[in-house]
Amino acid sequence: xxxxxxxxxxxxxxxxxxxxxxxxxxxxxxxxxxxxxxxxxxxxxxxxxxxxxxxxxxxxxxxxxxxxxxxxxxxxxxxxxxxxxxxxxxxxxxxxxxxxxxxxxxxxxxxxxxxxxxxxxxxxxxxxxxxxxxxxxxxxxxxxxxxxxxxxxxxxxxxxxxxxxxxxxxxxxxxxxxxxxxxxxxxxxxxxxxxxxxxxxxxxxxxxxxxxxxxxxxxxxxxxxxxxxx
Length: 230
Description:
The structure is a single chain. By secondary structure, this protein is α/β, with parallel strands linked by helices. The protein is built from eight helices and ten strands. The two termini are 20 Å apart.
């Protein structure tokens, strides 16, 4: 069980480890979808067992190396998310401005994004406010399996961009995946406050939560793997 647990952690995958201490020690390791990966007993999972849930990190792709992009990268790295930053402007995307990211790609996003292994764990945030960079990035991102796609812009700018992206060939269903204006409604103005709302929305979406106040919510605070804990 613990060898399998180490393999999961090494691969940066998520899951749930159930541990029963009494009367007979036992362990069950589940994948995020509820598949049993390993166990040291033939018994069914004990609903009274201690559940240790762990999540795989978000793979964050930032399009835009401006101040908001810097702030988002800092907050994502604090969460231990691997971060890739894409921007064709070499003067902006420097090691000094982005010292701790996984990759810096000085390329146009519509060229770089198709070469990245994008999956459900991937979040793509588009932050330049420049249609020449943002919209080609969104054409690729919204056709990908990314679990989250967001873009900066006011309500009016987002509506105008939606019309242009529809004309460029995206479907209404694809555009409905776009979070724009990006982030939770925190009222932030500084790059750091905006980054907080963006990262918070990614976490909320990943956990299928609305992002409201916990005191107004019902049900458990933390999500657990349903199959593992039922």
